[in-house]
Amino acid sequence: MFIAKVIGSVWCTKQHDALNRKKLMLVQPVDFMGGRAIGDPVMAVDVKMGAGPGDTVLVMDEGNSARIILQDKKAPVRTVICGVVDSVTVRGKTYKFH
Question: Hey, where are the domains in the chain?
């Protein structure tokens, strides 16, 4: 899992059946303590979180867990948005995102 910032949406005119009616979002992993981007952006499926550009999200980046969240054992998915982050507390310091 990692924390990321939603930086855009992905639109497809044709896609695998498992992705029908699912939001595809582009997310940028971030260092939540400093707010700077780390790593490369990746595409993640948002099933029920309602995340949008600018939101800070919790991302599951493991295929089998992603398919469990989607409730589809055959879905060709690795990365899923599984939460919208309001804050993180580390060593007594809280970082707020909303």
Answer: 2-96
* DSSP string computed for 9-71: EE--SS--GGGTT-EEEEEEEEETTTTEE-S--EEEEESSS---TT-EEEEEE-HHHHHHHHT
Each residue's pLDDT, cut to its tens digit, for the chain (98 residues) gives: 999 999 999 998 888 888 888 899 999 999 988 779 999 999 999 988 999 999 999 999 987 888 888 888 888 898 999 999 999 999 999 999 87
Architecture in CATH for domain 2-96: Beta Barrel (2.40)
The residue behind tokens 């948002």 is 46
pTM of the model: 0.88
